[in-house]
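[step 3/7] fold_predict: job queued, chain A
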Amino acid sequence: MRTYDFAPLYRATVGFDQIADLMDRVLTSEGAQPSYPPYNIEKLEDDAYRISIAVAGFSDADLSVEVRENALIVSAKKADEDQARSYLHRGIATRAFERRFHLADHVVVTGATHVDGMLNIDLVREVPEALKPRQISISSTKQIEKDVVDAKSVN
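[step 4/7] structure written:
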């Protein structure tokens, strides 16, 4: 596997730290990503998304959904109720987990539901009005404003 040095990128740019950090995090992450629990990421509309996580065997009290520093952190810990039980086969995994999703700027979590063993987390990208594109009207007449004082008239 190749390794990349992003130090020149940090030295030559201002304000692009998140892009460099994202590339560094993706390229240096381990090859084997955890596959438990399985999840889907859906695009519902242009600015609406849903993350669905299979959490069979967990109750609402066992699950935790938290947003911290542009990261969505979903975790679960099952209470130790199974010690008294004796299983012949145990195929339903209810082990503790923590899953992190890095959120882009202006993406907010609008809600979470737990139905039929699926945890659905709804997200929306809310771009502020100041950052949205706007149309500038072009006038056909030439207007010069005389707000600037002429240097010769002052001296």
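[step 5/7] annotate
Residues 35-128 form a domain with the Immunoglobulin-like fold (CATH 2.60.40.790).
The chain has a mean pLDDT of 80.
exit 0
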